[in-house]
Design a protein that fits this description.
This protein is an alpha+beta fold and 334 residues long. The protein is built from seven helices and 18 strands. The chain has two domains: 127 residues, 2,3-Dihydroxybiphenyl 1,2-Dioxygenase, domain 1 (Roll); 179 residues, 2,3-Dihydroxybiphenyl 1,2-Dioxygenase, domain 1 (Roll). The strands form two sheets. The chain has a ten-stranded mixed β-sheet with strand order 17-10-11-12-9-13-16-15-14-18, with helices on one face. The longest helix has 13 residues. Bound molecules: fe (ii) ion. Fe (ii) ion (FE2) binds next to strand 9 and strand 13.
Length: 334
């Protein structure tokens, strides 16, 4: 490989492909994703200790495996082709970031041909793959469809005490671009969010941090994961179904000022949030200008239970976790 490929801009060639969630509440997750958010449940799955869900022609998009973490334990990122993957692997090698190739069983579990795993910022397992197993069996789901394709299956928001290092990681390895920033003062604490895009999706990763003192009171590696429904009906119906099934809304329907997405945030069985969204804008690279906003939401996104302290999340009030994070440094591979 020559230096040209290392200097190559791979922006637009990587998107979010799957997520592995670990939970001891497989039954609850099945009801939540199938009946609440309206995904396709893979009923033919033979594995005992896991369940999986489709949103499109990919055989698996969300995998829930049995275990104690109650968290997202791996995020799969689909790379356009082998050449681009080689560029990424070379960049990782240059930084002495170790890469582990998947076992056959792990690849099978995720519904991909093979993948390469690295320990990313905040000890998040980042798994890179090229070929996903596809299926053309009809989808049987309550949502009409989900927007995936080249922009991937949605986005994740991650809290960090090393936001610049986390940002640098995504920029240096994946040529991430900054879409915009939001700064909002809530209860005297300044919350800073940086939105990074890897492709035409407004953001695939949002990095949130507290300004005055670097606290991370979020227990989970992912603060929320976003899935994009295809229509306003899908958004409204998923919201109603989740309410009827008794799931707590961290934030009811509202709109963000930057990506203009309409969305609600519902608390998953594992405690972190899933944002179900509709119609975020698609970025035109020729005209886009990076902006800073001073409010997370233009309207709505009100907590269902206002008696709790809501900033980013219902579990942001977990001060014990916040204090612990001051003592333990946050891992960064670069
Ligand atoms: Fe979001």
């Amino acid at each position: 490989m020559n230096n040209t490929s290392i200097d190559q801009d791979i922006f637009g060639s990587v998107c979010m492909g799957y997520a592995v969630i670990e939970s001891n509440q497989l039954k609850q997750w099945k009801v939540f994703l199938q009946q609440g958010l309206g995904l396709h449940y893979n009923a033919d799955e033979k594995a005992i200790n896991e369940i999986s869900f489709r949103m499109d022609d990919h055989a698996k998009r969300l995998i829930i495996q049995k275990g104690c973490s109650e968290d997202v334990v791996a995020l799969g990122w689909q790379v356009e082709d082998q050449e681009t993957l080689n560029v990424i692997l070379k960049r990782l090698a240059e930084r002495e970031i170790s890469v582990e190739k998947s076992s056959i069983a792990d690849a099978e579990q995720r519904g991909v041909a093979e993948f390469w795993r690295i320990l990313g910022p905040k000890k998040q397992n980042i798994e890179l793959f090229v070929d996903a197993k596809m299926t053309y069996e009809p989808l049987n789901m309550l949502s009409s469809s989900f927007v995936t394709g080249k922009a991937g299956m949605g986005h994740v928001a991650i809290t960090s005490r090393k936001p610049l290092k986390m940002q640098r990681f995504w920029q240096e390895i994946f040529n991430a671009r900054v879409s915009d920033y939001i700064e909002q003062v809530i209860s005297g604490v300044t919350l800073d969010i940086t939105f990074l895009r890897l492709n035409e999706r407004h953001h695939s990763i949002a990095i949130a941090t507290t300004k005055e003192i670097a606290l991370d009171p979020i227990r989970t590696k992912v603060q929320h994961m976003n899935l994009q429904g295809a229509s306003l009906d899908d958004l409204a119906n998923a919201f109603q179904r989740c309410k009827q099934l008794g799931y707590e809304m961290a934030h009811e329907i509202g709109q963000h000022p930057n990506d203009k997405e309409l969305s609600f945030y519902v608390i998953s069985p594992s405690g972190f949030e899933i944002e179900f969204g509709w119609a975020p804008l698609v970025i035109d690279e020729r005209t886009w200008k990076t902006t800073k906003y001073f409010a997370i939401s233009t309207w709505g996104h009100k907590p269902e239970n206002p008696s709790k302290l809501y900033m980013l999340s219902t579990n942001l009030s977990n001060l014990k976790q916040g204090v612990t994070t001051v003592i333990h440094p946050e891992y960064s591979p670069i």
